[in-house]
Amino acid sequence: AASPDGRYFATGADDGAVIVWSGKTAPERTLVEMQCPAESRGVRSLHFSDNGELLAGVCNLKLLIWRGRLADGFSLHVVLHRRTKVTAACISPCERYVVTASQDCTIWLWSTRDGECLWIFRDGHSPTTHLLFSPDGRFLASGDKKGIV
């Protein structure tokens, strides 16, 4: 994932490591190294908020939300995704919401404040692999394994 201003990049790995890099010095200099909880190995998707203060990631059955600034460090909020493996995550432009998609063809809307599930959309066609909000946050696009948007 890249922060909107291009200053930071985040990478995730199969061992659960999440690393934030400087856009100017990557890959020589790591800014922050974080770890997914032990039972949540395998980072599948990462997404920065517009101001770079939130980083959402998905690991197995969990939505992970890191909140903070690089200078101060990040705090981790773990949300258990109750159904099947999570495939994608995206933070809304207003930064109050994050959406996730899972292999059971559902899209979930979560509060970034407390991790509460606010809404579930059941698509039923094919598992969603990509999510993206419009810049004004009014629309959400989803793309699935079959290439349907």
Automatic annotation (TrEMBL):
<dbReference type="InterPro" id="IPR001680">
    <property type="entry name" value="WD40_rpt"/>
</dbReference>
<dbReference type="InterPro" id="IPR036322">
    <property type="entry name" value="WD40_repeat_dom_sf"/>
</dbReference>
<protein>
    <submittedName>
        <fullName>WD40 repeat-like protein</fullName>
    </submittedName>
</protein>
<feature type="repeat" description="WD">
    <location>
        <begin position="1"/>
        <end position="22"/>
    </location>
</feature>
<dbReference type="Pfam" id="PF00400">
    <property type="entry name" value="WD40"/>
</dbReference>
<dbReference type="InterPro" id="IPR015943">
    <property type="entry name" value="WD40/YVTN_repeat-like_dom_sf"/>
</dbReference>
<keyword id="KW-0853">WD repeat</keyword>
